[in-house]
């Protein structure tokens, strides 16, 4: 009996780990959607790029002789955030800004094109094979009987959850307290009116893309260290799942994206733990289809009113 | 900011974008990961990119003028000898005759590529109904293609059903899938619809990959028989007792080229049927309703059209063409596996529709030819194919969202002189 409870708790812990990274990526989707109403299809690729840059920075810095793992991770994180933000900014500038005000489908096709472009750019630049990273932080907390039933929460999992919580707190403070955050909320409500009141909405949109990309880079680095591998194709599935999380929580709502990510992560790890691991992606996609059909406003979102 | 500074900043950002990912490459050494400077080729690319961005920013106005011209240019004019419907009919006849005698005049490899092109033409035309005419972005189109391919492969493997019996079943089954998927999802708004269809396409692929007992999983299904001509096989020896082969029946020597030509002609017939059917559909009330719905959903509803059933019609018809194309693909390849039905395939078909001009049949046909023949001609650029497809999709949306040859409705104009 107690064994099955431990097994269940272990699945929950794994789910929370994965789910918190989904939540980080999902924020990028939800913020962009909240302001300009488009699905930034290339967001998953930014996450993938974040992982690559983090790996390059980690390898480069450790070759330079830095061997304190925490310093190393912190510096690589900074580099990864910087480069990914530049990508977020440029993607918006190149592929989306010229299309502002055109039909939704036009912008979406452009985003898909951008996503294909970035994926193949990385494939050509870094090769299509898996790149493995030796695990940097080993060990973890053990609860229960080490020889019998127990749950194991690795230090890496703890780092992922703590970093996610810190990012979420930071983001919430930024959105609720800062001047720019207020401008973001204003744009999400009514972009035309915000423009009339003297806020440059183009800047606000650029900031949104940069924040989304930075959080995706954090997720990319954390998941990269957790799984230890990266290839150019990880962005597609991760992006789709994070989008599912954003829709689940209610697209446009930041707390919704956090909640949606956690729910998706837990349901996925429970599927993998109790049913079959092969079909865990099917579960995520089916969840997406079902939510869009029966609850398109999500858990915390507002129902969208069609304006004529 | 002055122009030079902004150009400088843009170039700097490009350097940051490329510097890490293009300028350095990761390699594993033992268990450690090391990073080293990339090959000179990549560095050159990076340098050229930075300079290009700098110049583009510096001469922004000139570039802007060019793009405005691209956008406003309503359509590329058809050449003078193609203006009237009579002329068009004559030329269409010429083209069809040319395509019919093409395999007898050219090499085996060229015919093979032409067959592949025709499959993409068919897929492009089918997706054009959904995306171009009805304005529904379907990112899981490859799912229906897979349904068609696996229908023939599985029916043949388990029940020995021949290609000609399986073809209508495949089309029908794909249409049924389209109907069943479309029924719930078509009330969603455009971009949600796109994501749901994408999810559907992925679910089909994962199922095919994991349902090993039925589909053979990642190993796929091999030795799918080629189609026959009224029971005449195109192999050297009949596959079973009592069957006749093509060359024996006509008393000519065996040549493997007959099979390639036959497949080409079959694909051509399928494409011609597709073109004809869709051409008629566009002129039927349902075709007009598709376009009306694409242009203005609300106006349509207030005129008493039922959007769901109209969209469902487009979705089902589009899916059935993918089903036909899929079963033909299975017969031509002789081997299928889930690898052939990834999202990339959907993206290529979408790129064909986007490049050709949404709704325009001629445009889609030309785009399909360009997209399959060009990579074959320039084999060394094969690696860059998807990169360029992606770039092209972005640039097309910015410069010419209506496509290279957008559809033109017949219209009357008062002659002023």
TrEMBL record, chain A:
Pfam families: BPD_transp_2 (PF02653). GO terms for cellular component: plasma membrane. Keywords: Amino-acid transport, Cell inner membrane, Cell membrane, Membrane, Transmembrane, Transmembrane helix, Transport. This is Branched-chain amino acid ABC transporter permease LivH. The chain crosses the membrane at residues 20-39, 46-64, 70-89, 105-122, 152-175, 204-227, 282-300. Belongs to the binding-protein-dependent transport system permease family. LivHM subfamily. GO terms for biological process: D-alanine transmembrane transport; L-alanine transport; L-isoleucine import across plasma membrane. NCBIfam families: PRK10740.1. It is found in: Cell inner membrane. The keyword Transmembrane helix applies. The keyword Methyltransferase does not apply. InterPro entries: ABC_transp_permease (IPR001851), BCAA_transport_permease (IPR052157). It is a multi-pass membrane protein. CDD domains: TM_PBP1_LivH_like. One of its GO terms (molecular function) is L-isoleucine transmembrane transporter activity.
UniProtKB/TrEMBL annotation, chain B:
It is a multi-pass membrane protein. It comes from the Bacteria. Residues 4-102 form the High-affinity branched-chain amino acid transport system permease LivHM N-terminal domain. It is found in: Cell inner membrane. Its main location: membrane. GO terms for molecular function: branched-chain amino acid transmembrane transporter activity. Coiled coil: none annotated. Keywords: Cell membrane, Membrane, Transmembrane, Transmembrane helix. InterPro entries: ABC_transp_permease (IPR001851), LivHM_N (IPR021807), LivM-like (IPR043428). The chain crosses the membrane at residues 43-59, 90-107, 113-134, 141-159, 165-185, 192-208, 260-278, 312-335, 347-374, 386-402. GO terms for cellular component: plasma membrane. This is High-affinity branched-chain amino acid ABC transporter permease LivM. The gene is livM.
